[in-house]
Amino acid sequence: MKFGVLRFPGTCDEIDALQAAQRVGDARLLWHADPDLHGVDAVIVPGGFSYGDYLRAGAIARFAPVMASVLEFAHAGGLVLGICNGFQVLCEAGLLPGALLPNTNLKFTFRQVNLDVVDPDTPFTRAAGKTLSIPAKHATGRYHADGPVDVVLRYAPGENFNGSEDDIAGVRNAAGNVFGLMPHPEHAVDPLTGSTDGLAIFQSMAEHV
Known about the structure:
Oligomer: single chain
Number of domains: 1
Number of strands: 11
Helix content: 10-25%
Distance between the termini: 7 Å
CATH superfamily: Class I glutamine amidotransferase (GATase) domain
Order of helices and strands: EHEEHEHEEEEEEEH
CATH architecture: 3-Layer(aba) Sandwich
CATH topology: Rossmann fold
Shape: globular
Strand content: 25-35%
């Protein structure tokens, strides 16, 4: 099992995602300007930032050369995980429905959140329990969609700090192989962080492959 973790100019959480993936398989970084995915079995579009976010989060990164390969990979059934900024990039690229809007408090907010696993039967949640406790940190995380979506994760009651519609924290595409979430599972893979719940996301992907 080999994960590929994208790196854009300005990305700040790619090493965390890389090290999280390395706990369950092999992993390597993929540079945004290189369209070669180097034979990876799953792609992670990590959180943090990407260049051009000042225009709209993910709006420029989605045009990076590597993203053309990610689109082709996803359309062929490959697993793609988008975390925070990666979720924004996948929505901008049309791989996931909806959009991420500024938080209702109009502030960057960081906190540990509890999540309800709405759909435990996905390649990203099969190793997870009914709930997850992982951190979230963003200024643009309020999920909106014009129509029905396949919800995978919801903020538990009282945990929706960004104003996302229907408490949605993570969604998948219709085919089920692309998943995006705003909270950061890569920051909850070691007991020292207070939770290892995020590791279940990476374990699920490895087991599926």
